[in-house]
Write a structure and sequence with these properties.
169 residues; mainly alpha
Length: 169
């Protein structure tokens, strides 16, 4: 989305060339491959955990932190590996979004008309709001200390980052 906004605002005459079907296929394939690799790592890690506290979760879907609470093994290295991989993916996406929006902001500030700047800002703000909501709630869900955890708070946060952002697009 950020690359689409970048090309639409910063290089509007090249939009058809830069975001042709081939570029869209490459971006979609990269997103799918990264998601598949992440899901594969999480699934393999989850199925190899011994569960000693039953298998009932207090959530409406399986969340990794909730499953880890049911495990009786100390899987510190596994968790660390998954966290490092996910942080690299998230950091890469975050840097790409920030660089895109810095370029967009620079281009918007060069637009001479107030109406043109308003139109460009109104194009970008919904995407920034959804990305901010997703990243902040996901970081809160996964990086909060376990002492702050409560089942109702976990449920609200997981709904905020898993249901609301896809519904916005």
């Amino acid at each position: 989305m950020s690359y689409d906004r970048y090309v639409a605002i910063c290089k509007p005459l090249h939009y058809g060339t830069l975001l042709g079907s081939r570029a869209c296929v490459h971006m979609a394939a990269a997103a799918w491959a990264t998601g598949f690799l992440n899901a594969l790592l999480l699934t393999a890690n989850t199925f190899s955990l011994p569960l000693c506290k039953g298998n009932a979760l207090g959530q409406f879907f399986c969340e990794i932190p909730q499953i880890l609470k049911l495990s009786c093994s100390h899987s510190y290295l596994r968790e660390l590996g998954l966290i490092v991989f996910n942080l690299l993916v998230v950091f890469g996406c975050f840097v790409f979004i920030v660089v895109s929006y810095v370029q967009i902001l620079r281009a918007m500030l060069r637009i001479p008309s107030e109406q043109g700047r308003h139109k460009a800002f109104s194009t970008c703000l919904p995407h920034l709001a959804v990305v901010s909501l997703f990243l902040s709630t996901a970081m809160f869900a996964y990086l909060k200390p376990s002492s702050v955890s409560s089942p109702s708070l976990d449920l609200v946060v997981s709904v905020l980052y898993s249901v609301v952002p896809p519904a916005e697009f």
